[in-house]
């Protein structure tokens, strides 16, 4: 399984692109790049704090739950997500490979110390580490490499699968989107579940148009 923001849309989490998407109201280069954080860490943190506050109030949906139940009944199952919201874990998925990090993780820009911090609100913005340096959100911004271990696991999983379900991603962000042709080239069937066509719909074996929360429970029962 490869999931994107669309699987969380029915929980009330805004997607990035498309109608109501975050990048319609906010500029990614002002908020989701290392340069943006260097220029204005407080602004970047305020945006993440707003998203964390929203996420703390939402619940996983039927799409997340269907994937969690499939993991329980399938011995050879992998879930790779681009999402940072933690909703897969909250719906009961145990083995989640998060290639864009987590909004609930924080990392010190000085000593590199990493931890989970799910306090909403955070006591002080921008947060500081015990070593005195700025702490940043534990997510992957544009221009940054993906976490090495998670990316290696994602490549391993798609190169060895019989079936890749691609759920709720616009397939525009790389290298994440490259997992889709990687699976197809390795001989897997690729099924896309999305409201719309994507740039990689052409290489999928089947496109199911509709909401993940409607389609997944019908596929997985
Ligand atoms: C539903 C639904 C429902 C709605 N049911 N469906 C030019 C060409 C190619 C690449 C590049 C380029 N210029 C720069 C790059 C590289 C760049 C990139 O890909 N940019 C493109 C956008 C042009 N990539 C990077 O920078 C990456 N790093 C990198 O390349 O490093 C190289 C490097 C190597 C070594 C050293 C140094 C560097 C990093 C990418 C990081 C992406 N980060 C973000 C933010 C994460 C943190 C945060 O959340 O704040 O990740 S951006 C954002 O996009 C987020 C997402 O994970 C990611 C993907 O979005 P996703 O999930 O696909 O969501 P949407 O909104 O795009 O789509 C939602 C879909 O759901 C839509 O299709 C809807 O139709 C559908 N949908 N409701 C089913 N109910
Ligand atoms: Zn530190």
Describe this structure in words.
The protein has 221 residues and is of the alpha/beta class. It has a single domain, classed as Rossmann fold (3-Layer(aba) Sandwich), CATH 3.40.50. Helix content is 35%, strand content 18%. It has 10 helices and 9 strands. The strands form 2 sheets. A 6-stranded parallel beta sheet has the order 3-2-1-7-8-9, with helices on both faces. A 3-stranded antiparallel beta sheet has the order 5-4-6, covered by helices on one side. Strand 2, helix 7 and strand 3 form a beta-alpha-beta unit. The radius of gyration is 17 Å and the shape is globular. The protein starts with a strand and ends with a helix. The mean pLDDT is 97. The structure holds ligand BJW and zinc ion.
Strand segment count: 9
Q: Give the spatial strand order of the biggest sheet.
A: 3-2-1-7-8-9
Please write the CATH class name.
Alpha Beta
Task: Name the hetero compounds present.
Answer: ligand BJW, zinc ion
Q: Under CATH, the topology is which? A: Rossmann fold
**CATH architectural arrangement:** 3-Layer(aba) Sandwich
How much strand?
15-25%
- Principal-axes geometry comes out as globular
User: What class do helices, strands and sheet pairing give?
Assistant: alpha/beta
Q: Spell out the helices and strands N to C.
A: EHHHHHHEHEEEEHEHEEH
User: Helical content, roughly?
Assistant: 25-40%
Major sheet attributes? 6 strands, parallel
Which stretches of 5+ consecutive residues score pLDDT under 50?
A: none
Count of separate DSSP helical elements: 10
Classified in CATH, the superfamily is: TPP-binding domain
Alpha carbon gap, first and last residue: 16 Å
């Amino acid at each position: 399984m490869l999931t994107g923001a669309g699987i969380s849309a029915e929980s009330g989490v805004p997607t990035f692109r498309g109608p109501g998407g975050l990048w319609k109201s906010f500029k990614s280069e002002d908020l989701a790049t290392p340069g943006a954080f260097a220029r204005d860490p407080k602004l970047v943190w305020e945006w993440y704090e707003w998203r964390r506050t929203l996420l703390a109030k939402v619940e996983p949906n039927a799409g997340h739950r269907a994937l969690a139940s499939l993991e329980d009944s399938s011995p050879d199952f992998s879930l790779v997500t681009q999402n940072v919201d933690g909703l897969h874990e909250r719906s009961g998925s145990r083995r989640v490979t998060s290639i864009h990090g987590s909004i609930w993780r924080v990392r010190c820009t000085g000593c590199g110390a990493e931890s989970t911090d799910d306090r909403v609100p955070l006591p002080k913005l921008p947060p500081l580490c015990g070593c005195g340096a700025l702490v940043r959100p534990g997510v992957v911004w544009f221009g940054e490499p993906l976490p090495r271990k998670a990316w290696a696991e994602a490549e391993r999983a798609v190169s060895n699968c019989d079936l890749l379900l691609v759920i709720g991603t616009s397939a525009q962000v790389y290298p994440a989107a490259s997992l889709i042709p990687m699976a197809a080239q390795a001989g897997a069937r690729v099924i896309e579940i999305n409201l719309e066509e994507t740039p990689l719909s052409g290489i999928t074996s089947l496109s199911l148009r509709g909401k993940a929360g409607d389609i997944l429970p019908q596929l997985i029962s």
